[in-house]
Structures are given as structure tokens and as C-alpha cells.
Amino acid sequence: MYFRPTPVERPEELFDREEEVKALREAVGRSPMVVVVGVRRVGKTSLVKAATFGMRRVYLDLRAFEWRRYITLDDVLGELGRAVSGLSKRLVELLSRVEGVSVAGVEVRFARGRGRPILHRVLEALNQWGESEGGDVVVVLDEAQELAKLRGASLLPVLAYSYDNLPRLKFVVTGSKEGMLYKFLRLSDAESPLYGRYAPRVEVKPLPRRLAVEYLRRGFEAAGVRVSAEVVERAVDELDGIIGWLAHFGLMAVEYAKAGKSVEEALEASAEAGAELAWSEFCNFVALRGSGRYVDIVRAAAEGATWSEIKR
Ligand SMILES: Nc1ncnc2c1ncn2[C@@H]1O[C@H](COP(=O)(O)OP(=O)(O)O)[C@@H](O)[C@H]1O
Ligand SMILES: [Mg+2]
């Protein structure tokens, strides 16, 4: 088990998470839609990819839309076209029968504008793929709250259609921003197409302290780098059990150790790089919202203001 800069792909590469894998697979087995939530870098993408490894799977990384103010149906179809390309000959053949879809080898292209394919038809083709092979097709909408930015169309009717009529399609929707995710899905809004649909929720939590320490210890051992128990404890003090930050520190520490530098320095550098990353994400967020108010809110929160003080 090594530290890695990118999400885990295979179940055997996951540290811990046996229960979450089991819960997710079981939920996918019994429900057309499953929601996976947890803060950034806690390991949602890794969990979902590993738990669905080897299944027929269409994976959409919607972080592509994170810093966009709004997106169009063509943007969504563009991502979907990329996601279905190269997956299976059978699928490409089924998609090629849909109007507005062209194929070249195993590459799939969706026409844009007026000639674009109807999303229902595309999902039907995905469902047929599952049916023809006697199994489910998992569609992962990773960071699905970004789809709330869609203008000029809504995805909820087609999601509801699929939920009710396409038994082989299983949607796994993840979100780092749980409030925004549920606001997008509107499962409990009587006016919403998805109203009343049951969608089990799987939460990915930070590692408890004992496991965070264990993760670092085993990672360093696998990399052949000696790190004192004290430094490991201190890293967990600073980074908590967010596995993405622990991995970030682990990678840096291994690099530092190989260059003959101290691991303590790596902890400092990693915390600094993390803060910088968080800062740039925050700046992007403020720019996206187009309001300096968020700067004031965060400043007040950092100074320990209470909720009512912030509101005032
Ligand atoms: N269970 C795990 N075992 C080992 N590494 C993990 C695990 N979960 C996440 N990671 C690592 O942590 C980082 C962030 O994980 P990711 O799945 O991208 O988080 P999220 O999707 O919640 O933002 C990645 O570098 C990934 O390799
Ligand atoms: Mg992710």
C-alpha cells in the first residue's frame, strides 16, 4: 500500500474502507441511485472507483465544471461522450444507432446544437448494453453538484425516467458539497421529478486517529523510509484523518527522505502546499460567486465569530 497522487482504482489498493465498499456495492445492487458524500480529499472517488472496479461503468468527472459559472447540455454530453468512448465494442454499436451519435472505431462523438442526441436515447443504449450482457451498468456522476450549473435544460426528468424505466442503470452520485448535491437532486421536493425516490447514502468519513497513524506507518514502510513515531503522530495532529492530505504528506516525505532532507521539513512543506491549494480554491470560489462577502465571512469565522455575529 503506497502513497499515491491520484485516486485508487482497484479494491486491493484501498487502505481500510471494507465497510464502505460493502455498503456501496450492496446499495448499488438494490437501488437505481446511490449518493456518496464526504469532504474533499477524504477518498470518495477512490472508494467509488475501487468498489465498482471491473463492473460495466461509465465514469464522469464533473470537477471539469467546478470553476464554470454555468454549463450547457452540450458540455454535459461532451463529458458523457468522452466517458463512453473506448469502453466496449457492444456499447459503441448500440450508441451508433442513436440519432446524433457518430462513432470512429471505439471513439464516440455526440453532435452539438440542434442535432445533438436525446439524452433519454443515450441512456437507453447504456441500459441495453447491460441487458445484452446480463448485468448492471454503473454511471458515476463524480461531484454531481456541479450539474446544478446546467442552464437551458434540466437533468432531473431524465434521471427520474432512468430511475423508473431503465433497470440496468445504476447511478452513483458523489458530492463534496452535500448541501448543494441534495439541493440539485431535490429528492424531497414535491415539485421535483425525482421526488420521493429512494437513494441510499454512503458517507466517507475521515480516518479515525488510530487508522490515520497506521496508514502513514504502512505507507512509509512500503516506501522503505524510516520515520519516527513522533513525526507520524505530529502529522496526524496537523492533517487529521483526511487521507488525501496524509497521502500528500507521505509523498513529500518520501521525496524529501530520498533527497537526504528531513521528514519534519516535509511536514511543514506539505502543510504549506496544502494551505496554498486550499487558498487558491477559495479564491476561485469567491471569483465564481462574484462577491467579496465570502472573504469577510471567512475572516470573521477565522477570528472565532459566532454564527449570529457572522450573519449580522
Ligand atoms: N482508501 C484509500 N487508500 C489509499 N489511498 C487513498 C484512499 N482513499 C483516498 N486515497 C488517496 O487520497 C487522495 C484523495 O482521494 P480521492 O479519492 O481523490 O478523494 P475525494 O474524491 O473524496 O476528493 C488520493 O491521492 C488517493 O490516492
Ligand atoms: Mg473526488
UniProtKB/TrEMBL annotation:
<dbReference type="InterPro" id="IPR027417">
    <property type="entry name" value="P-loop_NTPase"/>
</dbReference>
<protein>
    <submittedName>
        <fullName>ATPase</fullName>
    </submittedName>
</protein>
<dbReference type="GO" id="GO:0005524">
    <property type="term" value="F:ATP binding"/>
</dbReference>
<dbReference type="Pfam" id="PF01637">
    <property type="entry name" value="ATPase_2"/>
</dbReference>
<feature type="domain" description="ATPase">
    <location>
        <begin position="14"/>
        <end position="246"/>
    </location>
</feature>
<dbReference type="InterPro" id="IPR011579">
    <property type="entry name" value="ATPase_dom"/>
</dbReference>
